[in-house]
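Objective 1.3, modelling of assemblies. Example input:
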Amino acid sequence: MTDQSTTDPTKPAQRMRAGSMAIPLLPWCVAAVLLLVLPFIFTANSAITIMNQMAITIIFALAYNMLLGQGGMLSFGHAVYAGVGGFACVHIMNMDDFFASIPLPLLPIFGGLMGMGLATIVGSFSTRKAGTVFAMISLGVGELIAACSVIIVAFFGGEEGISGDRTYGMPFFGVEFLQQIEVYYLIAVWLMISAALMYLYSRTPLGRMANAVRDNPERAEFLGYSARWVRFYSFVASGFFAGIAGALFAINYEILTEENLNTTQSGIILLVTFLGGVGFFFGPILGAIVFTLVQTVLSLQTELWAFYLGIVFVVTVMFFPGGLAGIIMMHVPAMRLGKLGRLGVPYLKTLGAGMIGCFGAAALIEMTFHFRHASTGDHEMTIYWTTFDSHTVLPWIIAIAFTVFGFGVARRTAPDLVDAWNDANTPNGATQ
Amino acid sequence: MDLILVNLIDGLVTGLLLFMLSAGLTLIFSMMGVLNFAHASFYMLGAYFAFQISLYMGFWMGLLIAPLVVGVLGAGVERYGLRRVHQYGHVPELIFTFGLALLIEEVVQFIWGKNQMPYATPEVLQFTAFSIAGNSIPAYKIFMIFISVAIFVGLLYILTRTRVGMIIQAALTYPKTVEALGHNVPLIFMGVFGVGTALAGVAGVIAGPVLGTFPGMAFVLGSIVFVTIVIGGLGSLWGALVASLLIGWITTFSKAYNLRMEDLLTWLGFTKPEPIWDSAWRDMWSITSPQIADILPYILMVLILIFRPYGLFGKRDA
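Predicted structure (tokens):
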């Protein structure tokens, strides 16, 4: 991971001096326009629900990446800061007089401050060390607070959680946030603000020092920076943005429970961030979008989606430590050389065959699962829009044939792909 | 007094069980510098394998074979997984074991389903060993104590008295030098990883019938094991033992004696706010010790980290 994320002097964004505010505006404008237009393209209520969820996950994943990617700190309990921010916001929603005097769009600030406050307390002792010790402390504190949620009922509401009503806030230019679409724009605006702030943070000297401390804490100390305080500031800032994500969750769903705090939630955000890629700023954004989509689509199709996700995650850690963003950025040199097109056909051959193999393997897994766990007498199963009897031989033969064929072809064509890759990454004339 | 004795035994069983997990974990940590997040998952695999074997060959063969299978699996994970990820650094290693923990839980659910398995104690041990003032102590508990003490003594003997143990200890501190002396250090690492996971497997085999064999069992015990080795000091075997017993006894005693926060606060001179159900401090007043027994280890860990960041027995620079 570290080799992916070290500073690459050839990239214009990193060639700038630290602290320089000249940021490329184009991607941000595109993102803003997209956020503005998307609800007109996907008008269904369910689509807007998914987009809200996506935006919240993006903010949370970006906040998490301030620790993992930029600071090199692996936290196993980051859901706590988002959760506590959210809980605080629901409590504010329930304070009738106070809530009636502030407009709803300002509520995330309180959530952020709450997350930041908690991060200040925890960070004061957890950021002394990075690496394993930090990870263990984050896990312990996360478990502690998650367990407290069942005991401290006054704040966390016990097992049923606490709920509020966002519409009691002071109307914001006449908008009362009764409809999902209004909430969407609120979240979208906060997404832009927090993403921009987090990006700018990574450009400040402090953000740069976080990278330095991640890569070589000893050297950073020799330069006169306290590695511990640099980590502490990153941690606090990350807690703030996690709190904002939690507050947006509270506004969107109007209910928070123990589930928002527990280790599962923290694990998911680690998964999202790592799958997206920790080495680049846009990695977690990509991860959040893909993960939310996959989760929504796949969990409708199969009970085993967490199983597939686990496989994908382990494979990513082992073979593509840069995540999705890393894979995409691998192609930049080829693109610079103008030889990206040469990869098209080999990619189609190998990856297409690989896809067929994966689908075949997935079918085998699903059939095994159905064979073992379906209620007795239930022999009928549906997969890839075909219904068949899972206790007959023919479907198994077909699935095995597809798997073997797919992976076999992928294996056969892999050397061609490697050649094409090497060719595409060498300047003209160097290969021959 | 009698109740104290019963709780001492109960706490000892819990503590020794924890120790079997934390011993392997702490060994692996001092060796590779990485915490095996999936350690408790190997404990779960041990229980499931033993259950499957016990269906065909009985409990005792399960106790013998399952840890071996788990150990081989663990060694395989080290050889083909961790060693590959090692080049990227410690944090990806940790993430890898985390992903492995997720994956193992899903695989277990895929193979055995989500329900608890009917894995029971062997019939030979289903009698009361002795009773203290009307509290019967099942023979299985005594059996668990014996197994774990035997393993601890064996481990200690191998590590400190045999040639293999000496080489392992040397490889922990100076891997390069040991390699230069002609020992195959990667093989030692793989072996220790395998033995560590096999220990977790043993713990799973003997705990499965008592604590239940279900897909969440790794998760239930997993974070407590980490807390244990953080309290004991990362990388310290003695620390792991002391912390395990400490946690075992603390949780058992706080569950057995119903200490109420109300009494403590009154004794300290606070007055109970009336009406209590409307007070912001109502949860503070209604806390009882059985209620917080499960989070006491975490509180202990946070306190230890604040006042003695390297753990009870850890080295300062660990």
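Chain A touches chain B through 49 residues (CB under 8 Å).
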